[in-house]
Amino acid sequence: MKLLQLNKYYTTVYIRPIAYKDSNEESANLLYPENALLIYSLPMGEISEKKAISVCVSSWTRVMQNMIPPMTKATACYLSSALATTEALENGFDEAIFLTINENVSEGPGENIFIIRNGVLVTPPVTDDILEGITRDTIMRIAREELGINTVIRSIPRPELYLAEEAFFTGTAVEIQPITEIDRIKIGNGEIGPITKKLEQLYFETVQGNNPRYSSYNTPVY
Ligand SMILES: Cc1ncc(COP(=O)(O)O)c(C=O)c1O
After folding, report:
1. Three-state SS for 82?
2. Whether the predicted pLDDT of 204 surpasses 90
3. What is the C-alpha to C-alpha distance for residues 140 and 163, in angstroms, rounded to an integer?
4. 183 Cβ partners below 8 Å, 6+ apart?
5. Residue 73 annotated to the active site
6. Is the dihedral of CA 185, 189, 134, 156 positive or negative?
7. For ligand 1, what atom is nearest to the CA of residue 173?
8. Residue 200 half-sphere exposure, CB side, CA atoms within 13 Å?
9. Residue ID of nearest Cα to ligand 1 atom 6
């Protein structure tokens, strides 16, 4: 809050806190008592409807629970994310989708993924090496409470991506990011789907403090 006030922001701002071990010792371990915190902020401009993106399934595999716990937002995971996004961009896509070692859909390099099948939202479980994002949680709640749409949390095999009626990423930075093409295959009719559009609108209302039902998501800065 203080960081936002000091920077006199009156726009959407991405806030990134990084907690780290602050030690001059040589050995890499987590036992050092010195903890430190760095927070930086990045103005994002006004919230606006997102353009659809085209994504690919990455040749890079999502880190596993027993490597670097993907449930934590560990900075070390982001080398793997950067490799996947770089590969996607170099191949003419906008972003990547990671599979798990068992070839189930996991998530994006910095986003959770949802697909819609038969009018129901589906998103991978924590056992498929996802970070349990707060936006994922918010969307599941809004979909249930505002649209009466339940989310099924289950593994998604890769081919099911291509059969989805709609697909989108969620994340603090991307908010709701519609996906209309995966591996050059059109999702649904290749346009942003009606449920994705509705959820995006409801999400904006929520984070901008325009829906009193979700006022607990908002903290006044000034
Ligand atoms: C790997 C990964 N998955 C998912 C997310 C989405 O999480 P949240 O909605 O909490 O921002 C992020 C956000 O940074 C992420 O880095």
Report:
1. helix
2. yes
3. 21
4. 56, 57, 161, 162
5. yes
6. negative
7. 11
8. 22
9. 171
- Secondary-structure class of domain 53-207 per CATH: alpha beta
149: tokens are 């749409």
Q: What DSSP character marks residue 190? A: S
What is the distance between the alpha carbons of residues 159 and 161, in angstroms, rounded to a whole number? 5
**pLDDT at 50 (0 to 100):** 86
Atom of ligand 1 nearest to the CA of 137: 9
Centre of ligand 1 from the C-alpha of residue 26, in Å = 31
pLDDT at residue 113 tops 80: yes
Quick one: what percent of the chain has pLDDT higher than 90?
Answer: 91
Among 73, 186, 197, 198, the active-site one is: 73
Residue 32 Cα to ligand 1 middle (Å): 27
Rg over alpha carbons for the chain, rounded to the nearest Å, is 18
| Ligand 1 centroid distance, CA of 112 (Å) | 6
Residue in this structure with the two tokens 């009156």, named with its chain if needed: 10
Rounded CA-CA distance 166/117 in Å is 8
d(CA 28, CA 35): 14
Residue 73, pLDDT score: 93
Nearest residue (CA) to ligand 1, atom 5: 111
With CA atoms as reference, report the closest residue to 58 among 129, 10, 117: 129
Query: Distance from CA of residue 190 to its chain's centroid?
Result: 21
User: Could you tell me the residue ranges of all domains in the chain?
Assistant: 2-45, 53-207
- CA distances 190 to 121, 142, 187, Å, are 18, 24, 5
53 touches 94 (CB < 8 A):
yes
